Amino acid sequence: MPTGGIPTIERPARGARRSPVTLPSSVVHPGDALPTRKRVTYILILGMLTALGPFTMDTYLPSMPRLETDFHVSTAVIQLTLTATTVGFGLGQLIVGPWSDKVGRRMPLILATAVHILASLGVALAPNVELLSAFRLLQGLGAAASGVVAMAMVRDLFGGTRLVTMLSRLALVNGLAPVIAPVLGSQLLLIMPWRGIFWVIAAYSAVMLVCLVLWINETRPKEARIASGHSSVGQRFKSVLSDRVYVGIVIVSAMNFSGLFAYLSSSSFVFQKVYSFDAQQYGALFAVNSVGIIIGVQSAARLAKRFGPQWVLAVSTATMTISAALIVILGGSGVGGMWGVVVPLWFFITSCGFGFPCVQVLALNGHGAEAGTAASIQGASNFAIAGLISPLVGLLGVASAAPMGIVMLACSIVSVCALWFVVRPRTVPALAH
Questions:
Q1: Cβ contacts of 158 within 8 Å, gap of 6 or more
Q2: Region for residue 72 given its phi and psi (left: phi exceeds 0; alpha: psi -120 to 50; beta: otherwise)
Q3: How distant is the alpha carbon of residue 70 from its chain centre?
Q4: Which of 305, 310, 6 shows the shortest CA–CA distance to 160?
Q5: Which residues of 131-161 are buried (b: 16+ CB within 10 A; e: fewer)?
Q6: d(Cα 318, Cα 64) in Å, to the nearest integer?
Q7: What integer pLDDT is reported at residue 227 of this predicted model?
């Protein structure tokens, strides 16, 4: 095994008698032969990388009312700075994912992370909302590689039910990050102005760059790129987009994420203006919701192995729809006050947690040869569509929680329809062991 930790088949010495050399029968994918310590290192670093995008977008959520005051602009304009990041993140993934299929995973990760550091510093120093939005777009482009290439690297190493377990570890971090980020942001606002948040993000990105350089090796060697048989970007896109199950899962994933993002982008205004939360109380609410994410992600990994990820999605999307409907009814009428919104909101977010690892497994399991492309389309759809949908809450107004709930409900209904009429759970093949 080379120092990088990726298993290979040893070649006999020159002149030695050649005989067939095979990996142990238990080793089906390269990651199966990794020692436990190396496997944990990869998952830990790659998991932290997947958090870079959500931290980039969500850590400053508690400070959005302050940006509105500092720059003397409307709520909708400040929400557009978040939209700029999500659009950048989506477009960046469409570039980086296919690129990583062609040239390997490591170099795109390193270059994109370096861009992210510079963009974060630009946001911290931006003198007006126009430049802030431009640097936020560049931040999204720089963070794009973190999520899409990290997932592709896990798919390079694992498959079948082991892939469910490994992606659930990434999904735990990736699912918790959007919830923890505002908690961190609210605490940072106690000791620094909002610009300081972006100095912290730049430092986090710099740490990730060091980890990449020192401990992450290439998981897609040149031989695998040649053997994949997909010599062009067009062929790789055609391969994944001709798969009905994959296309349906992309729709489900994008709608689930958009529903969650509608909450993330508007909740700071809803809870701080309508229910008079301060930044710390708002952060505490996110801490409580993070428990739901943990429960959802970890339970989904076990249930998906037993029943299939498509059936876990069937239950989670239905629960999201019911929860969002309750937010619309109770938030609009005022029945139950704050608790009439907080309780169904917790169930909505928990259901999102159940869905995170399931959509990733269903999207990547059948596309190992073009995992970067498959992950990029899924990720780009998530963030681009969420970025376009989330400002609708601001346009509808934040006088109550009902507009937020309406957008969440609409996304959930589309998700349910895509699952049952496009994916069709009964037609999804069982995962290999």
A1: 29, 31, 32, 166
A2: left
A3: 30
A4: 305
A5: ebbbbbbbbbbbbbbbbbbbbbbbbbbbbbb
A6: 32
A7: 57
pLDDT of residue 121: 96
pLDDT at 24: 45
pLDDT value at position 194? 92
Spatial distance between the Cα atoms of 427 and 199, rounded to a whole number of angstroms: 48
For residues 349 and 256, give the distance between their C-alpha atoms in angstroms, rounded to a whole number: 10
pLDDT at res. 226: 61
Q: Residue 224: its pLDDT value, please?
A: 67
Q: For residue 27, what pLDDT is reported?
A: 52
Q: Say what the pLDDT of residue 386 is.
A: 82
CA distance 422 to 433: 26
The CATH code for residues 34-216+235-427 is: 1.20.1250.20
Q: How far is CA 60 from CA 73, 131, 376, in A?
A: 17, 16, 25
What the block records as the tokens of 239 is 């391969």
pLDDT < 70 positions in the chain:
1-28, 174-176, 178-179, 224-231, 432-433
